[in-house]
Design a protein that fits this description.
mainly beta; 24 strands; 1 helix; four-stranded antiparallel sheet
């Protein structure tokens, strides 16, 4: 209530009623925003998201929602909490077999996808995908007849589908060759006192050997013992191929055995010495007189092979 004098000089008494609008308890405002957002709008103002807000008093001038009796808006004070939700990132390394897919991808590479997470903010997923190719292995194997390789015993090409260490398909191509075992008959004649492969008596013997392919070779030896007076069993101290002018002596011998031949044959002649099993014992150098020193060999019968230009001669030598 107050009094004042108006322009007419009269005293005027007036009573003024004042209504104050107040907000004694600040309202609490909580928000959840994504980290990629720069600001939010609140009560008509932009709030920068350059820091955290944890129940901070924020005054918004003339921002009250209601109006007073004079039609004016008052300041608004709130407790502001803003939670910033960081972008979720995930990193996946995956390995798949050729022909399969993972999350829709079937080719090797790096894939990045952006999704909306449960919070409503971005979620970034990076996928590193490795594709393991199908492996092919080619095996060439050789076995002997009667043997097996990986369960196979017949010659041919086989394809097996296996699983590699990565769990993917592995194709193995097997090219299998089967070598024959050999069976042969030998008809051998020897003189009394001689032996062939250790046998000295007439009869049939079976030997299990290894052929040139490395496989079993069955040899049936049919051994005959000649009479002592058979021409193949008669040995003189001097043996001569008269038609070729080759002279061999002494035979039998205790140590050295020599050949003599004319100069025309020396050019083309080559000498080889074998035991009765066919093992080569010595080669002779070419000179006017060919000699073998048999002192290092055991007593027994040896075969001298004389290779000439157009023919081959065989001479039996006895070491005593």
């Amino acid at each position: 209530h107050y009094e004042y004098e108006n322009t007419c000089g009269c005293i005027v008494e007036e009573t003024v009623m004042l209504n104050f609008s107040s907000n004694p308890v600040p309202a609490q405002h909580s928000y959840m925003v994504c980290s990629e957002e720069l600001s939010i709008e609140l009560l008509g103002e932009l709030i920068a998201l350059d820091r955290e807000y944890n129940q901070e008093f924020i005054v918004f001038p003339e921002a009250s929602v209601g109006y007073n009796s004079n039609g004016l808006r008052c300041d608004s004070t709130i407790l502001l909490t803003i939670e910033v939700v960081e972008t979720q990132e995930s990193y996946i390394e995956e390995q798949i077999c050729d022909g399969l897919d993972y999350m829709g991808y079937s080719e090797e590479g790096v894939y990045t996808n952006v999704f909306i997470g449960a919070s409503g903010c971005d979620s970034i997923r990076t996928l590193v995908l490795e594709v393991v190719p199908e492996k092919e292995t080619i095996i060439e194997a050789v076995i002997c007849e009667g043997e097996m390789y990986d369960g196979y015993s017949v010659a041919g090409t086989y394809v097996d589908l296996l699983s590699s260490t990565e769990g993917c398909d592995s194709v193995v191509y097997l090219k299998l060759t089967v070598l024959d075992t050999t069976i042969q008959n030998e008809y051998i004649s020897i003189c009394p006192g001689e032996s062939y492969m250790g046998y000295m008596e007439m009869g049939t013997y079976i030997e299990e050997l290894t052929n040139q392919n490395g496989c079993d070779s069955t040899v049936q030896i049919n051994l005959t013992i000649l009479e002592q007076d058979h021409e193949d069993c008669m040995i003189s101290s001097v043996f001569e191929f008269k038609e070729l002018n080759i002279l061999a002596y002494p035979n039998p011998t205790e140590r050295v055995f020599c050949l003599e031949m004319n100069s025309g044959l020396i050019i083309d002649a080559r000498m080889s010495l074998f035991d009765l099993s066919g093992k080569r014992m010595d080669d002779v150098e070419k000179r006017d007189k060919y000699c073998f020193d048999l002192s290092q060999f055991d007593d027994g019968i040896y075969i001298l092979k004389i290779d000439l230009k157009n023919e081959t001669k065989i001479l039996k030598i006895v070491k005593i």
